[in-house]
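Translate sequence into structure tokens.
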Amino acid sequence: MKKILGLTLIIVFLCMGFTNAQEDFMGPMDPERREQMEALRIWKMTEYLDLTTEQAAQFFPRLREFRESIRDDQDRQRKIMIEIHKLVKDQDYKSSRSDVKKYAKQLSELEKNIITKKEAFILDIGDVLAADQQMKYIIFENRFRNRLMKTICQPEEEHKKPMKERRKP
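Result follows.
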């Protein structure tokens, strides 16, 4: 049953469409890789939260809506960071305290907005998820993001090692 649910969710998610990656310091992400990561995320989340078919049918569209609602703020953050990066690279540009204040304020306002939306989403899904599932959702999002960042930031040779060897100190 869970395998069928997982496959169904992956198909549904893939049919929902994906946004193109924004260029940042590392360049755009390969769309195929993005799809694979999102499919993995949905599958793992379904398992970890132990979602029923009915819960999944209600939860994932709302999750997609939530992610779309914060995407604008994240895109604006990325654009500001690109702007700052260009300024810093320009040898003729001299940073000023007013520039620092302006950009710090813009970025923090966007971050506050995202945090407010995240809090509202977690509380609003209480009509679909039980309290323990909501708590697991918080844990899942944090762990998945952290593990993804560790994987992305690892040197290339680390990716080639067996998982057992990667965990050794």
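Note: Residues 2 and 47 are 8 Å apart (CA to CA).
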